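Example 9 (inverse folding). The structure is encoded as follows.
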């Protein structure tokens, strides 16, 4: 009975529907011919030419029915083959995507490793960025901008935001004390180094929209809504949307996790800091979206912190440091 239920509830695809319709029409044709009990004289001579002079009308009907059935199963067979080829293509595309994602994550982790250890900062950032983008897509203002592709792209490219840190010397990047102005100027360069590196890759590969978004994010994730950020001092909607989203995700993560220069703040305290920075550091609409999603942020953080594999032991540090200087 269970098996029957399963078969009955199985969704019928278009190919199956076509075959069922074909079989139904074949039976209808056969039934009509039987009911009327005649083939027209032209049909009879046509079938006799085809199947021989002694073939009876009953055989003609059976042969025609068989031809319908053979045609139907041939259609099904062809469609089956096409569906299998499509499934194989989809599977290899999926594997390619996964390999690409793993490679990007590996490279991005190399850049993060020096100052953020072996944690899951990047995995958290991409989850935060994705849910923010998904929720923003519900607003009429962003519905046409935040497409399925935008969400896929931000998931992949957000992890490249700090890739430019590879070009910052240890003495500055890992300095526990407050940075001098000169040192902070060096730290700021990670946005340009990262953006330029992605731009160089982009020029070698065509049609990879996540790289264009990755470049926007790397260049602009430290810009602030009121224009007081870096490197270009862009303000408001002049800051690319993806960078505005990642800016909030990155700061939330920096606040709620332990860094070598600070201890972790609670979700509540971090939430309050973000609210206080609404319309100065952050796009006010993105802060509103964050507030709607805050329970999910808390959940993702807790889940991903559980799977962290280790932590580099670095000197004890005071609060503030680079975060307050804006180098998260
Ligand atoms: Fe950064
Ligand atoms: Fe970061």
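The amino acid assigned to each position is listed next.
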């Amino acid at each position: 009975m269970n098996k029957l239920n399963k078969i009955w509830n199985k969704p019928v695809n278009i190919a199956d529907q076509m075959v069922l319709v074909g079989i139904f029409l074949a039976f209808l044709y056969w039934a009509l011919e039987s009911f009327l009990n005649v083939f027209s004289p032209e049909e009879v001579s046509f079938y006799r030419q085809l199947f021989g002079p002694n073939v009876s009308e009953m055989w003609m009907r059976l042969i025609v029915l068989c031809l319908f059935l053979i045609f139907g199963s041939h259609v099904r067979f062809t469609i089956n083959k096409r569906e299998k080829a499509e499934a194989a293509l989809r599977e290899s595309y999926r594997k390619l995507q996964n390999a690409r994602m793993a490679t990007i994550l590996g490279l991005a982790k190399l850049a993060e490793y020096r100052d953020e250890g072996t944690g899951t900062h990047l995995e958290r950032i991409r989850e935060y960025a994705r849910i923010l983008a998904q929720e923003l897509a519900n607003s009429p203002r962003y519905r046409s901008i935040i497409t399925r592709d935008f969400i896929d792209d931000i998931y992949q490219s957000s992890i490249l935001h700090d890739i430019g840190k590879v070009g910052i010397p240890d003495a500055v990047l890992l300095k526990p004390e407050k940075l001098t102005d000169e040192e902070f100027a060096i730290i700021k360069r990670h946005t340009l180094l990262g953006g330029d590196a992605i731009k160089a890759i982009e020029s070698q590969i065509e049609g990879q929209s996540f790289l264009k978004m990755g470049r926007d994010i790397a260049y602009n994730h430290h810009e602030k809504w009121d224009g007081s950020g870096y490197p270009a001092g862009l303000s408001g909607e002049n800051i690319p949307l993806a960078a505005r989203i990642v800016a909030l995700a990155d700061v939330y993560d920096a606040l709620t996790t332990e860094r070598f220069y600070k201890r972790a703040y609670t979700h509540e305290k971090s939430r309050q800091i973000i609210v206080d920075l609404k319309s100065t550091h952050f796009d006010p609409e993105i802060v509103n979206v964050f507030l709607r999603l805050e329970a999910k942020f808390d959940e993702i953080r807790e889940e991903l912190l559980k799977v962290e594999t280790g932590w580099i032991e670095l000197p004890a540090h005071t609060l503030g440091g680079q975060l307050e200087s804006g180098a998260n």
